[in-house]
Amino acid sequence: MRLRLPIALAFSIFLAASVLPAQQDKALEAQLQTIAAAHHGKVTLFAHNLKTGQTAALLPDELVKTASVIKLAVLLDAAEQIRSGKATLDEQLALTKPNQVEGSGVLALMDTPMALTLRDDLTLMIVLSDNTATNVAIDRLGLVHINATIRAAGLKDTWLYKKVSIPPSGPMPPDQPRFGLGKTTAREMAALMERFATCKLVLDGSPPLAGDSKLCGALLHMLRSQQDRNSLPRYLETLDTSETGSAIANKTGALNDVRNDVALIVTKAGPVVIAAFTQENHDQRWTGDNEAEQTLGKLAKAIVDRWSPNGLDADGFNWEDPAHGGK
Known about the structure:
The chain is an alpha+beta fold. Helix content is about 35%, strand content about 20%. It has helices spanning about 5-15, 25-35, 70-85, 120-125, 130-140, 145-150, 175-180, 185-200, 210-225, 290-305; strands at about 25, 40-50, 55-60, 65, 90-95, 115, 160, 180-185, 250-255, 260-265, 270-280. It has a six-stranded mixed sheet with strand order 1-3-2-11-10-9, with helices on both faces. It has a three-stranded antiparallel sheet with strand order 4-8-7. Strands 5-6 form a two-stranded antiparallel sheet. Helix 2 (about 25-35) runs antiparallel to helix 10, helix 3 packs across helix 6 and helix 4 (about 120-125) crosses helix 5 (about 130-140). The chain is globular, with a radius of gyration of 18 Å. The two termini are about 35 Å apart.
């Protein structure tokens, strides 16, 4: 494993490389608090304007259920193992029946055994939030290695406990039954998305690799193609962007009483990262008008209206070469 430096040092290097020092936007926070107070459930959020350094937060360090947004951590570990030469996007994986589970995705419907590349598997894990694809990826990367990468990235409150819809194996932390698949905070999940947005894949203090930007471009392409647009993007992009390209790269997560979304949103005023979580939701309908999804959309609209009154700009970001910033 390429995880040489102590966690605290690795995280301090990452923070030191942030675009600008954080500047709390209290007026925006008051606006967001009003939206959250009207929601029938609990809201936590952390937003960061990568160009200006402005931030806005609601209970950003409170532990929450990840649901499927923990798949961002699986994606980060895949990047770590590709960078260290332990994996490649084009390597062949095998889909087997034990990893086929219910819920989102299509691989559970396929005949087994079936061959697919790591790139295809990760794409399905992100674009369709495919639970079976996630289990295949966890088998390939290793649960222990994924959590070691999470620690090395400085995410002390984030954890992936097990595979999706499969009982945990071996001794589990006492809080696992409370959180299920995984736990995190809004601040930490925003920091994870920011790594993809700024192509900071280095975890151990070593120099960036020549292929980092191309790898980041491939991962952002997956996130930008994510098909659940009912939450943070809800009121920001109302037209079909499948042909022109979206200004939003995001990963959602949902349980009966949970709706979460973590996004990179490219605005005319620069890129913004938002991690928003709703828990203990009264509205548990699996429909597009679920109250929590509407609340997430309102929060994102308030943030973008405040920080970029002129809206989004999908072409204002170098999606293929994010290490070199905007176009």
